[in-house]
Amino acid sequence: MKYRSVFDIIGPIMVGPSSSHTAGAAKIGRLARSIFGRQPKRVHISLYGSFAETYKGHATDVALIAGVLDYDTNDPRLPQAPQYADEAGIEVVITTEDAVPEHPNTARIMMSDERDEMEVAGISIGGGKVEITELNGFELKLSGQCPAILVMNHDRYGVIAGVTQILSGQHVNIGHMEVSRKEKGKMALMVIETDEKINESIIDEIRALAGVNRVLRMED
Amino acid sequence: MFRNVAELVALAEERSCSIAHIMIQQEMEVRQTSRESVIELMTRNLDVMEQAVARGLSGVSSHSGLTGGDAVKIQQYIDSGKVLSGETIMDAVSKAVATNEVNAAMGLICATPTAGSAGVVPGTLFALKEKLQPTREQMVDYLFTSGAFGMVVANNASISGAAGGCQAEVGSAAGMAAAAITELAGGSPRQAAHAMAIALKNMLGLVCDPVAGLVEVPCVKRNAMGAAIAMVAADMSLAGVESVIPCDEVIEAMFRIGQTMPTTLKETARGGLAATPTGQRLKQQIFGDQTTK
Question: What is the model's pTM?
Fold first, then answer.
């Protein structure tokens, strides 16, 4: 079931005017920033479907930028997010796309700075609830409601076992896990949602595993 | 965990308790937390709703100028003593409008279940506050009851205008409110389910066609009518009227209607009222050459 908490229905407390196109957009932006791990220098946001058609009226672009700035849905600074982004020296580009997305409320966020570059896609499914659906071309499903780690690894035997062994050794329970790859034997992505918080030492341990390229951590 | 309205009603009947109680219990399990902390979270939502109603009743205006001030007009009309349909209904209407006027003005609201449909549940609740004088605890319960029914809709159909049209937003809100009104007024869980079914049936097929893509026209007035329908549906159910089509089947019908609804009528601002000459003119006026697309 997609909706498990009554506060997904009665809530969130938010700055108007739209739960899906304003609050949801802010959440997608904030999750993207959390995956990126810090404030990016450049942000390119592409809007699809209903987001592309009605973003001005709903301040969807403003809310996405607010999210990238790490503002919550009820942050009074949300309506002025573009100004704050400008003051923080972040280069922001917003474009609308004609391609028909799988979900009508889709945004794709490309973030970069001198160290890194990342592309995250998210959907807003209603009432302020969102899912991250893509990371650097890998399909995934992430709600952002639990702590999570994203592991990019070489697609070969033993890597998944290595990661889960480290987690079990640290008494971390996995609530949801999925693996995906674009091509057999090349790069793969592991998405692991956990019940407990994952501290930095666990992340370092996973990073040191053979076959692991990159580990990203998301806090809830 | 209840998956549909039938299971929700059965759970409440088995345990001889309210729908609100079932929802609170489930939330405690999902969050692994105490009753107090769940109640506290919901009380915070109630406070925000109350503040939004008060702010709307003091008069607000949106950035575009399309909406604002109608909640005040309706309150003044009620005070004139000339109301035809019923003072509690018009009070609910005015408080629903107040909430959505604040939302349109980018003010702080609580989404119930969405921001565009945020007026119906608090509008009816704060009108009944005058009529039934509920305790704060009963008002919080009202939100849990609404939430329980809303969760069933969200999981089995949709609460998104982009996915299911306005029937999924204001329709769901009207159903949720109708059920909560019924329970607050002393109706049984079964009567609450019938009230929801009656309200939602009368919202089926409602499209999402916001002028200029703004959550203003016709959203604010749809919340007004959503509140009125919720009140009437609750009254009918409390009178003993039952929905011939069971609530879960009405929800299923809403889902199917939403799936077959053309995208021009699902929050794209390309059809319905958005596409009327006046709708187009307003869009041009507000955004000039920088149209929404």
Answer: 0.87
